């Protein structure tokens, strides 16, 4: 099957939702392949937030959008060493794939703390999915900060996310990052050494390879993919629904 995002190899491993998978033959900037995931419903596949006919490859999304939930097994995501805040024993886990250059991600960042304050059963997990070179640079710095001192991650994350980075070039992005590191009590040269080790880049690439994100932010709420909930009221409704499901 061929899609706009590249050639897809499908490996069928069952007849139920969630029991089909694929690899998108697409290369990231660092040369690593970016895997995708398919979920099968009858004779149709859900692929990266879109629904395609298994025989023709035709895009069925317009007529089915919002009618077929896209679900994902959270056990496939590496949450062990992920960046987490909120409940240590959550009933609702919200995994966010975000980008420091994304305005909707910046808007969403303002929602997290009120949501976590009002719903102590919720855990927020952040995963990097940079869509530009500048965003990737900031993501790698955030990972370098975490490797040096994990307790510093969320502060630098919030600084990176909240700044207006429109029309920035590489020089301005690097200048901004250096200033933020110093204001956060970190040594820029030490962080630069960590970047040269390659470990922060590998961490970002691992995040990107876990799940086939088509836009940022993409949220996975207890396994259900959400791509259009950016404000508090929308997330509140989703969380309340998931808590009711857990308490049945």
Give a structural overview.
By secondary structure, the protein is α+β, with helices and mostly antiparallel strands. The chain has two domains: 1-69, no CATH class; 83-210, Glutaredoxin (3-Layer(aba) Sandwich), CATH 3.40.30.10. The chain has eight helices and eleven strands. The protein has helices at 61-64, 103-118, 133-148, 153-162, 170-183, 188-197, 199-210, 232-246, and strands at residues 2-3, 6-12, 20-24, 38-41, 44-47, 50-53, 83-86, 92-98, 122-128, 218-221, 224-226. β5 and β6 form a beta hairpin. The longest helix is centred in the middle third of the chain and has 16 residues, at 103-118. The chain is globular and about 55 Å long. The termini are far apart. The model is unreliable at 1-51 and 64-69 (pLDDT under 50).
């Amino acid at each position: 099957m061929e899609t706009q995002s590249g050639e897809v190899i499908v490996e069928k491993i069952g007849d139920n939702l969630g029991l089909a998978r694929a690899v998108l033959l697409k290369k990231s900037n660092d040369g690593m392949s970016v895997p995708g995931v398919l979920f099968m419903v009858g004779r149709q596949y859900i692929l990266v937030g879109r629904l395609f006919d298994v025989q023709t490859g035709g895009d069925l999304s317009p007529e089915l959008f919002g009618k077929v939930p896209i679900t994902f097994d959270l056990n496939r995501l590496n949450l062990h060493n992920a960046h987490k805040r909120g409940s240590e024993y959550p009933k609702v886990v919200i995994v966010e794939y975000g980008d420091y250059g994304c305005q909707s991600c910046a808007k969403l960042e303002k929602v997290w703390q009120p949501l976590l304050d009002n719903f102590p059963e919720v855990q927020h997990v952040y995963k990097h999915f940079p869509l530009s070179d500048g965003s990737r640079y900031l993501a790698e710095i955030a990972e370098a900060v975490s490797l040096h001192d994990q307790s510093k991650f969320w502060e630098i994350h919030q600084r990176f996310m909240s700044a207006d980075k429109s029309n920035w070039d590489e020089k301005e992005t690097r200048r901004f990052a250096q200033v933020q590191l110093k204001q956060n009590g970190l040594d820029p040269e030490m962080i630069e050494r960590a970047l040269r080790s390659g470990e922060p880049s590998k961490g970002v690439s691992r995040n990107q390879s876990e799940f086939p994100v088509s836009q940022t932010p993409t949220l996975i709420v207890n396994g259900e993919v959400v791509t259009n909930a950016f404000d508090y009221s929308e997330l509140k409704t989703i969380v309340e629904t998931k808590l009711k499901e857990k308490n049945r």
